[in-house]
Amino acid sequence: MRVASYNIHKCRGADGMTRPDRIVGVIRELGADVVALQEVDRRFGRRGGLLDPVALRHETGMRLLVQSDVSYRHGWHGNALLVRGDPVSYTRSRLRLPGREPRGAVVAELDLGEGKFRVIAAHLGLLRLSRVDQVDAILAAFHDLPAMPTILLGDFNEWRRRRRSALSRLEPTFGLSPSVLSFPSPRPIFPLDRILGSPKGLITDIAVHDTPLARRSSDHLPLTAKVDLAPAQRIAA
Description:
Layout: E1 2-7, H1 20-30, E2 34-38, H2 53-60, E3 62-65, E4 80-84, E5 89-97, E6 103-111, E7 116-123, H3 128-144, E8 150-155, H4 171-174, E9 193-198, E10 203-208, H5 212-217, E11 223-227, H6 229-236
Parallel strand pairs: 1-2, 7-8
Antiparallel strand pairs: 1-11, 2-4, 3-4, 5-6, 6-7, 8-9, 10-11
């Protein structure tokens, strides 16, 4: 299985133009089975969703799993999920994250035909102390859930390394993913986006998706990774 994380920056590209069609083109390039999206809704006004679910499915074969209870919005604090085709099963919950800014995470349990797994998709805050509290909230929620292969991914807004990194708290449970540079898209110098997994060995081949279209379409480049569910499901069992 192939997964991806992509902050679409409200479909605003490096040239300042808002072009949802370019985002759809990048998603098509990814060829992923599951994509976690951040910043899927407008920032002001009604904060409506920016993607057309019908066009998205036609162009990419992916279904938008809307997380908002408001009909014209797509995300929970901007977080939404895409899956290829129709899941065998799908349940979801939402987690409010602490901090000065409104933040949240989407928790979804999915079966795409190869067994059940969990996705936790989040967009962490800009302040380090908020990120520490948010990471702790995600870990507490994870440990309260039944054992299941779990992918944790999103825009974590963390560039610091080792002890100064809020993500170091994730290491005992999720390990630490390679620091893949994804921001800003025209010339990436910061590893803000991450894909992690539990148990160990669930996630491999983490890479940045760096194409001319991806560099134009958002201020972040997407990350991709491979997921091997079979060994993880044996360990969880």
